[in-house]
Design a protein that fits this description.
2 domains; two-stranded antiparallel sheet; alpha/beta; 12 strands; Rossmann fold
C-alpha cells in the first residue's frame, strides 16, 4: 500500500498537524518517512504567525529535531531541505515526489497560505493534491494532540464503479487499523442537479426522474456486491444510499458516523481549476475537518 510517506513542512505549528497522522501510519504500515522543506523565494519573515524557515542550516536542524521528537525510534525517518529557492513551492513538492522520493503518500496540513481567503482554497496543499501522481492526505489543523486513529473509514462511491479503484486501499487500511468500512453513494435529487444536467432535467423532467431512480437501483446492487465481499473477508462494513447534493451529504454523514477518514478516488491532473471547481472532494473539504485521502485514478 503506502511504502514511503512524504511530509512537507514549512516550520509552522499548523503544518505540524500532519505529524501525528504520519507517525501513526508509518508505525502501523512499517513505512519510512521523509520530511521535506522547500526554501521559498522571497519568503515572508513569518508564516501562520511562526517564524518562516528561510535558512537551509536552520531548516535542516528543524527537520532533524522534528524527526526525533515526533516519531518513534522504530520508524525510519529521513529529511531533506531543498536549498535552491523556488517561487512555486507546490510544484517543487510535486516534482520532488515524482523524480526523487517517489512516495506512495504525501501528507499535508491544509492550512491557508499568506493572504489567502480561507483555510483551504488557493494554498499549497490544494495545488499538490490536484497535481500529484501520488495519493495525498489532507489534514485540517487541530487543537488536540491525541494520536491519530482509524475506527470508521468513509468511502464515497458513485453508482457506476468509477471510483472503486480506491476500495483496495480502503480495505487495507481498515484491516490494518481494525476499522469499519462505511460506503456511501449520493444520488442527486431533481432539485440538486446543476449545469447541463439541470437544463436537461427541466426539458425532460419525467425522464430525469426515472434516470435517477434507476441510478439508485444500480447503486444498491453495486453496494450489495461489495458488502458480500466484505462479509466473506470478515471486514465490518456498512453501505448507505442517500439523495441530495453529494458534497454536503457526504460531509454530514462523515460527522454523523464519527468517521476518522474519508477516502476519495479522484481524477486530478485535469487542471487546478477543473479539479477543485467540479470536484465533490473539494466540496467536502470545505465542510468538514475530517482528514481526506485522495487516491488518483488512472484512465
Amino acid at each position: 500500500m503506502f511504502k514511503h510517506i512524504l511530509v512537507p513542512l514549512d516550520g509552522s505549528k499548523l503544518a505540524e498537524a500532519a505529524l501525528p497522522v504520519a507517525e501513526s501510519l508509518a508505525q502501523m504500515l512499517q513505512s519510512p518517512v521523509t520530511l521535506l522543506h522547500i526554501i521559498e523565494q522571497d519568503a515572508p519573515a513569518e508564516i501562520h504567525r511562526d517564524r518562516h524557515l528561510t535558512n537551509s542550516i536552520e531548516a535542516e536542524a528543524y527537520l532533524a529535531e522534528t524527526a526525533r521528537h515526533a516519531f518513534s525510534p522504530t520508524i525510519k525517518v529521513d529529511w531533506h531541505v531543498h536549498t535552491a529557492a523556488v517561487a512555486d513551492v507546490a510544484r517543487s513538492i510535486v516534482d520532488h515526489s515524482a523524480d526523487e522520493f517517489q512516495p506512495d503518500l504525501i501528507i499535508l496540513c491544509s492550512h491557508g497560505n499568506s493572504g489567502m481567503h480561507d483555510l483551504f482554497f488557493g494554498n499549497i496543499a490544494q495545488q499538490v493534491a490536484a497535481a500529484s501522481q501520488a495519493s495525498v492526505m489532507l489534514i485540517k489543523p487541530v487543537e488536540s494532540s491525541s494520536p491519530f486513529k482509524l475506527t470508521h473509514i468513509l468511502v464515497p462511491l458513485d453508482n457506476e464503479s468509477i471510483h472503486d479503484k480506491a476500495i483496495p486501499i480502503a480495505v487495507e487500511l481498515a484491516n490494518t487499523f481494525k476499522a469499519q468500512l462505511d460506503l456511501i453513494c449520493v444520488i442527486p435529487t431533481f432539485a440538486t442537479l446543476s449545469g447541463e444536467q439541470a437544463a436537461s432535467a427541466n426539458l425532460m423532467p419525467a425522464t430525469t426522474t426515472a434516470y435517477l431512480d434507476i441510478a439508485e437501483e444500480i447503486a444498491q446492487e453495486h453496494f450489495q456486491a461489495h458488502l458480500d465481499e466484505f462479509q466473506k473477508a470478515g471486514l465490518p462494513a456498512s453501505a448507505e444510499i442517500a439523495r441530495g447534493d453529494p458534497a454536503p451529504v457526504i460531509a454530514r454523514t462523515g460527522d454523523r458516523i464519527g468517521a476518522d477518514l474519508i477516502i476519495f478516488g479522484t481524477h486530478g491532473r485535469a487542471g487546478l481549476d477543473a479539479f477543485w471547481n467540479r470536484s465533490v472532494a473539494a466540496g467536502v473539504a470545505r465542510r468538514t475537518r475530517i482528514p481526506l485521502l485522495l487516491i488518483p485514478l488512472s484512465g
